[in-house]
Design brief:
Elements lengths: L4 H18 L3 H4 L7 E8 L14 H22 L30 E7 L5 E8 L5 E4 L23 E2 L5 H4 L4 E2 L8 E5 L5 E13 L9 E15 L13 E4 L7 H5 L3 E5 L11 E6 L11 E6 L5 E3 L1 E6 L2 E2 L17 E3 L6 E3 L1 H17 L13 E2 L8 E5 L2 E4 L2 H4 E5 L2 E4 L1 E3 L4 E3 L7 E6 L4 E6 L7
Parallel strand pairs: 3-10, 4-9, 17-25, 18-24
Antiparallel strand pairs: 1-2, 1-12, 2-3, 2-8, 4-10, 5-8, 6-7, 7-8, 8-9, 11-12, 11-26, 13-14, 13-27, 15-16, 15-20, 19-23, 20-21, 22-23, 26-27
């Protein structure tokens, strides 16, 4: 039988829709199709919009805290890094869960996002958006042990949409953090972080709402999302009971259990403003098509995925002014026998390079600054500081197919009135592109085409 071309086109389109819906995670296909796209507030922790806001803490305080925290965080990443199995293999069994959640004193994540959870009515809460984590979790009542947060804890008993996941459910058995032992009936999870902080509780499905009520068209109500409801949470603040912690984490990794994976979304972007005025407003995290902004090919570099879900990029060298440092490429590439890789991490403030690459960078900057009669001044937490950076050289990260020049603001951090410190730290066995190097940059992830774009722009702030 011959069908008119218009009917054939309709049947093909219908089949594509059916296949798309059937390929969604089981937590979604039983309900309704996810939204096309949405956006949510990306709030700096020092903003009055943030539940972590402390008017007595300056940006310089936060920077120093982040530098201290980086030492703890990178130790954990290195220990759990891909390729750190007994035989020195690749990332096959690694889950690089780092600690963006630790409160002030060790907590170094700069941003949180706002969302609502549950129903009758929903509870407003916040989480650290972390491209290195694959689970959405938050502190929940009853608290067998919880750290201090500035907003109320989520009480699942008051939400009609909250549903525990049983131990024999596929949503439990396929989750990398599940923990079920007899006589357990319901699925548990357990996560330990870099500084021995940890969260443990129930895996459940729940309704989550993202978006901004001032822009209803960009809101999204997400049903039957797998979350971790933490009833036992330790933040390891060394007795500092007055410190305030973020309510939880929103995992944005490439893993199927992250926010993106559960929705089968393959695009997201953010543009974090460098404006340090706490009253200036918030940035936006955009998820899906057409919301996420992926800029042109001239701004793109290939994106690779580790089995743990981390986002990997290929750095080929560093450049200072117009001079390549000729750093051995192996120092930047992931490979066997624990060879380092380079990840993009929204939960880390400062970028980090392994010693061989970092030392070459510092030595060259020192040589250039010495010509201007500028010599290093000591600092207990940063590796390289100067009193004057007026003539400091430009630093460029050379990615595969992309040379990305860092602005002066993304290269140096002002710690004191006359002390500017390099906003790149000495790493251990892995390289990290942190948020300080992503300020006033639109960063767009296209997971379908496996590219990430970096485009300098004046990132807008919303009120």
């Amino acid at each position: 039988m011959n069908f008119p071309s218009s009917i054939l086109a309709f049947l093909v389109a219908l089949m594509a829709i059916v296949l798309t819906i059937s390929s969604l995670p089981s937590s979604y296909s039983a309900h309704r199709a996810p939204p096309i796209s949405f956006q949510t507030r990306m709030i700096h922790r020092s903003s009055p919009e943030s539940p972590l806001y402390n008017p007595n803490v300056t940006p310089a305080n936060l920077s120093r805290t982040a530098a201290i925290a980086a030492k703890t965080r990178r130790t954990y990443i290195a220990r759990h890094k891909a390729g750190q199995s007994a035989d020195g293999g690749d990332w096959a069994h690694a889950h690089a869960y780092t600690s963006p959640m630790t409160p002030f004193g060790l907590y170094q994540g700069e941003y949180i996002i706002r969302y609502s959870i549950g129903s009758d009515p929903p509870t407003e809460t916040y989480g650290v958006p972390d491209t290195g984590s694959d689970l959405i979790w938050l502190q929940c009542l009853p608290c067998h042990r919880c750290y201090t947060q500035n907003i109320k804890y989520f009480d699942p008993a008051k939400s009609s949409s909250y549903s525990l996941i049983s131990c024999n459910d596929e949503l439990c058995t396929t989750n990398p953090h599940e923990h079920c032992e007899p006589p357990d009936r319901y699925c548990h999870y357990n996560l330990t972080y870099a500084d021995e902080s940890m969260t443990s509780g129930n895996l459940a499905t729940e309704t989550i709402t993202f978006g901004d009520e001032t822009s209803p068209s960009h809101m999204a109500q997400l049903y039957d999302m797998v979350i971790g409801c933490g009833h036992y949470n330790i933040d390891n603040r060394e007795g500092n009971k007055s410190a305030i912690g973020p309510p939880g984490v929103v995992g944005l990794s490439w893993s199927s259990s992250s926010l993106l994976g559960q929705l089968a979304f393959n695009r997201f972007s953010y543009c974090a403003s460098a404006n340090q005025d706490p009253n200036a407003g918030h940035s936006l995290l955009k998820i899906g098509i057409p919301g996420a902004l992926i800029t042109g090919k001239e701004t793109q570099t290939p994106l690779y995925s580790a089995p743990s879900g981390s986002y990997l990029v290929n750095v080929t060298d560093l450049m200072v002014d117009e001079e390549r440092l000729n750093i051995p490429p192996a120092l930047f590439r992931m490979g066997p026998k624990g060879r380092p890789g380079t990840i993009i991490d929204t939960g880390t403030t400062f970028s980090e390079f392994v010693p061989g690459a970092f030392n070459a960078l510092v030595e060259y900057i020192n040589a250039v600054q010495a010509l201007q009669l500028q010599f290093p001044i000591k600092d207990s937490d940063f590796d390289l500081c100067f009193a004057d950076i007026s003539f400091a050289p430009k630093v460029t990260i050379m990615f595969e197919n992309l040379n990305f020049e860092l602005s002066k603001e993304n290269t140096w951090e002002q710690i004191e009135p006359r002390k500017y410190c390099l906003a790149i730290l000495r790493g251990d066995r892995i390289n990290i592109i942190g948020m300080s190097q992503q300020k006033n940059v639109n960063v767009g992830y296209d997971l379908k085409n496996k590219v990430v774009s970096f485009k300098d722009m004046a990132c807008p702030l919303m009120k």
